[in-house]
Each structure stands twice: as C-alpha cells, then as structure tokens.
Specification:
Helix content is 27%, strand content 18%. It is α/β, with parallel strands linked by helices. A 7-stranded mixed sheet has the order 8-7-6-9-10-12-11, with helices on both faces. It is a single-pass type II membrane protein; Single-pass membrane protein.
C-alpha cells in the first residue's frame, strides 16, 4: 500500500525538479553575462575565473626564483590591444643609492637655518621627481634577523664609518670587518642602555605595561628605543639627516622604529596625547628658547599622566659647566627656565640625580597649580605641515580630580583590543564601538588569509612592516608580536584615526603619499597598502607612489595591495616595468568580490648589476 500511495507523488515531482534546475542555469548564465559586460562593479579591465577552490599558498618568499607566479586564479585581460606597453623604469645612478627625496642636502641648504627650518621636509616639485629605481649598494645583504639584528649591521648595507670615529668614546657603534656592532651605548649611557633604563624604571612604571608608547627626540642610532623593546615598549625615534650621517638608517637597519625628523618650525607628525613617555638624551634641543615652544610641542603629544626625561645639559650643570665651556649663571638660568616652563605645562619634577631629571604631566587640569591663559585654539590633531605655535594644548575636560583627561588606558597588551577612549567618546567621526569591534574582527580574518598566502608573515623574516593606509590600526593589532613592529601611516587626506591607533598601544605617523616618506631607501621588509590607490586616484600619479614604495622596500621584500580590481590592474601595468614579481589572488570571500589582492616581491639587484644609471628626470 505504501508504494502505491507514493508512486504518483514521485512521478509528479520529476518535471518540477527539471524546471527548477533549468531556471537556475538560466539565472546564472545571465548573471555571468552581466558581470562580464562591464556593468558589474569593477570588471572593466579583467575577468577573474576561479579554477580551484583553494589558492596555492607561498611558503618561501626569501628566494624569488622559487616562487611560482602563474596565477592560480587565471585572469584574462580585455584591455584595448592598442594600449601602449608598460613603461620600463631604469635604475637611478649608483650615487643615489641613499636618496631621500624630502631631505636632500642640496635643497635643504637653500632654506633658512633658523629654527632648524633647513632640516625639515622640503620635497621636490612634480617636475623634479625621480622616475627611476633607487639601487641597493654593491654587496647589499639581507639584514640580520631579530634579535641579532639589534646588535649587528652589514657594512655593505650602510657603508658609513663617520659615527665610529666621532662617537668612539660613547659606545654608539664599532666597525668590525664587514659588520658594524652596536654595544648599546649612548652619549648619556656609555655603559649601556639597559642600566640607564633600569634607573628610569625606579621612577617610571616601564615594566608593567603602563608605558607602551615612547618618543625619543634626537635619537642617534636609537639604542634607547632598541633596548626599550625588551620591556615591550614601542619607541618612535627621530633624528635629522645631518652631519651624523645615517643615524636613522642605522636604526631601521637594526630593526628599530625610526624616521628622519627634527623639532623645527612645524608640528611633529603625531596626534595629541600619543605617548606615555618622551625623552631627550643629550639631544641638544634648546628647550628654553622660543618661549618654550618645543617643550609645549612635547606636551601636546604627551599623554596626561605621562613622563618626560631630560638627561644631559643643563642637568648636573654644577659638575659639567666647565666642560661645556659655559658659565654657572648661564647653565643655572637655563635649567631654571626649563623647570618654570614645565610647571606652566602642569608638569611636576619627580626625580633628579646625576645627569637625569624626570618630570610627570598631571592627569588633568583640575590638579594644576597654575592656570595658563596662553591656550591653543587650533585642532591639536590637525598638524600636517602646520606651523608650531607658542601655546599650551588644553587638557580634555574632566568631571573630577580623579579622572584621567582623555580617558584611562588599560595596561598593554589589554589596551590593544580595548575600545580606544577617542572611539568610546565619539571623537572619531563615523566610528562607533560596534564598528571598531567589527573592524578588529575583519582584520583578524584578513591577516589569517594573508598568512595562508604567505606563511612567513608574522615570522622574523618580516621585521619592519608598514601599513600605508592604517585606518584604525587593526592590521597591526592582528599581527602584534615581539618579532615585528608596524609603522601605521594615516594619510593626511584620510579620516584622522591616528590618535585611536596610539591609544591601542601602537605607533604611527601622518603622511601625504604624494610626497616621499621620511626614511632612507630599503628600510621596510613588508608593506601593506589597503585601499590606498583608490584614496589617491585623483590626487597624484600612481607611478610616483609606486616608485616611492620601491625606494623604501628592501630587495626581496614583499608588498600586499588590496583594492578594487580596476585599481589593481592599473598597479599591475605600472609594476610590469619595476623589477617586481606579481601575483593577483582573489578576495578571502571568493572570486565574485570585486576587491582583489596583489602580492608583489621586489627582485634582488644592486648598483653593480651592470645597469646603466639614470638621473631619473
């Protein structure tokens, strides 16, 4: 009976099933035709066809010759056959191997010396930008991996012995055959940075995660920042490109965060309340000059409750005034003026012994003894190329003396995943607590996908990493490891999120990618560019940004681009003339997503490879 009852039902469903299958086939046929026609988002230049469910991952990027760059996701160019071939960029002349476009000496010397203006950024106009590839010097070698890289640098990579002579008695750097050795000394800590930091730690809670971000003004070869990394503190170090040749280059070659910079006439490229501490170790910045403008600038970027360390002149002037060839009265007047300025900033001196003085900024304005009428009126986070002002950045408002102005931060690493106070207080336009959490979750997923593409990401192979369009810093947060650090760059034309990035315990800088970055060539192992070229497509030439990326990327370094497929194809066309190996893969959510990922590995070549040099004009 059962078979008799169900047989008619089965026969009745068969035509219906066939109809449904035919209907679905027709639907997907028309959908595919629509996407290929160019009316779907982003498929005007390229159609990506997935041949396999799984993308083949890269397991070794150290040897470019071993890479298979035939795309697993084959793509068929449908661009106009009449379109010209990719422009081939020639190598620049070997003498340009350390070219820094915005800090070149010849251009710098045409600017005034007052307030160190000539040491600030002075970038070439469009007509003078180089259109060639900066070569690595002869014999260039992959830097030592961390932590060995902290103490050793290949001479061939930074062939300058000047500091080994000038700073011979201060234990900065020693030349030993084909390498430089960095013993960890400095002008104010010739016996080593560890002992110096241990003394600071008797006053400043360096070891418990309260101090995470630090600023070193006039850093030398950044040994202080290098040894602060042992305490899980990220230091933003800067020094000018001056007669102490290659200070910042040495720092980055060692695997320590640093940029070319100076306290001059414009604001530092960092947001307000960014750093837990700042230090000047014989940096020779005239803190008492210009009505205290430089100390006011440090105050702007120092977090409420943060610390400022001054070691060297004029501290301990009673011992050294004759060595400095200065009078007692002059030295005393300078220190008195600094302490008077510190008090006006609502700082309290916590320690003075030997060559070191430590000040602490009050946690809010209610606890200040002096109230200044000279308050800044401008936006303390709108600082790109803005003139430094002689005024005091106001504290954020609080309701009680126990409250920390701007919001209390968790100790690191807890603060990495906590909601930044700027986000919680609605100070980052368009970003809510929920969207911040979603962004963090999204980038964890994306970074995991990147690691499937390149299994060396997150290892010691890539130490110096840059995120060119950092957003909320979630890429860096997902990667966080003692094996690496990330320079989070917030473009000057993007949403201002850098303050929130610092509140996560990360470091970064403002920059305009239509100009050269404040670093030496070959200083980053890995560069991430998500949505950067969509952001800049109407602002400046793609080739100028790509040439700058090539300049700062080390030979055999890697770039990951993430952008709309149209944009990615434009990048691929230019990259074809740049000695890059490229591979485009699908979005982590599949081939139907118009956003694509481009993997680049820079080929190894040097100025001695037999190329004829180009002036680049």
């Amino acid at each position: 009976m059962a078979s008799k009852n169900h047989a008619p039902v089965s026969r009745g469903r068969r035509p219906l099933s066939i109809f449904v299958v035919l209907g679905l086939c027709c639907f997907f046929y028309f959908l595919g035709s629509w996407q290929s026609s160019g009316y779907g988002k982003g498929n005007k230049l390229t159609k990506v066809v997935t041949d396999q469910a799984e993308c083949k991952t890269f397991t070794n990027l150290e040897n470019v010759d071993n890479l298979e760059f035939e795309p697993q996701h084959k793509y068929i160019s449908i661009s106009d056959s009449a379109e010209p071939e990719a422009k081939v960029f020639k190598p620049c002349d070997a003498k340009l191997s350390d070219y820094t476009p915005c800090q070149e000496q010849d251009r710098a010397m045409t600017f005034p010396r007052e307030s160190m203006i000539y040491r600030e950024r002075h970038c070439p106009p469009d007509g003078e930008k180089l259109k060639c590839l900066i070569p690595a010097p002869k014999g260039y070698t992959t830097p030592f991996s961390w932590p060995k890289g902290r103490d050793y640098v290949h001479y061939a990579n930074v062939p300058y012995k000047h500091l080994t002579v000038e700073k011979a008695g201060q234990n900065w750097v020693q030349y030993r055959g084909n390498v430089f050795k960095f013993p960890g000394g400095g002008t104010m800590f010739p016996q080593g940075a560890d002992a110096y930091i241990d003394e600071l730690a008797t006053v400043i809670p360096i070891k418990d995660g309260s101090i995470r971000t630090a600023l070193d003004t006039g850093c030398g070869v950044a040994s202080w920042g290098a040894y602060m990394l042992k305490r899980n503190v990220l230091t933003m170090s800067f020094a000018p490109k001056d007669n102490h040749e290659a200070q910042v280059q040495f720092a980055l070659e060692r695997g320590v965060p640093a940029v070319i910079g100076v306290l001059g006439s414009i604001n530092m490229p960092y947001p307000s309340r960014a750093f837990d501490m700042a230090q000047c170790s014989r940096c020779l910045i005239p803190w008492a000059a210009n009505d205290g403008m430089y100390l006011m600038e440090v105050d702007r970027v120092l977090r409420p409750g943060g610390y400022w360390v001054l070691s060297g002149p004029p501290i301990n002037w009673k011992t050294y005034y004759k060595t400095w060839k200065r009078s007692k009265e002059d030295c005393k007047a300078e220190q008195d003026k600094i302490e008077e300025l510190a008090a006006s900033l609502c700082w309290e001196k916590k320690y003075e012994k030997g060559d070191i003085a430590i000040f602490r900024k009050k946690e809010n304005s209610k606890s200040c003894k002096k109230k200044s009428a000279n308050i800044c009126r401008s936006n303390a986070d709108d600082v790109w190329y803005k003139k430094m002002e002689t005024c005091i950045t106001p504290y954020p408002q609080v309701k009680s003396e126990d409250e920390i102005a701007g919001g209390e931060l968790k100790k690191f690493p807890a603060r990495l995943s906590e909601i930044p106070p700027r986000v919680a207080n609605g100070l980052v336009s368009g970003v809510t607590t929920e969207s911040f959490q979603e962004d963090s979750k999204l980038w964890k997923k994306r970074v995991n996908y990147y690691k499937r593409i390149n299994s060396l990401l997150g290892t010691r192979r890539f130490r110096n990493i840059m995120d060119m369009n950092a957003g909320l810093g979630s890429f860096a947060a997902a990667l966080d490891s003692p094996k690496l650090w990330v320079m989070n760059v917030v473009p000057s034309i993007a949403q201002n999120t850098l303050g929130a990035i610092y509140e996560r315990g990360l470091i970064g800088i403002y920059h305009d990618w239509c100009e050269g970055f404040s670093t030496y060539p070959r200083t980053y192992d890995f560069i991430h560019a998500s949505g950067l070229f969509s952001l800049y497509q109407d602002k400046c030439e793609f080739e100028d940004i790509l040439l700058e990326m090539d300049r700062i990327l080390r030979p055999e370094g890697t770039i990951i681009f993430r952008d709309d497929v149209d944009i990615v194809n434009k990048v691929i066309k230019i990259a074809g003339g740049m000695r890059w190996d490229t591979k485009m893969v699908d979005h982590e959510d599949g081939p139907l997503v118009p956003e694509k990922i481009l993997i680049v590995v820079k080929q190894y070549w040097t100025a001695s490879s037999g190329d004829s040099g180009s002036s680049g004009q």
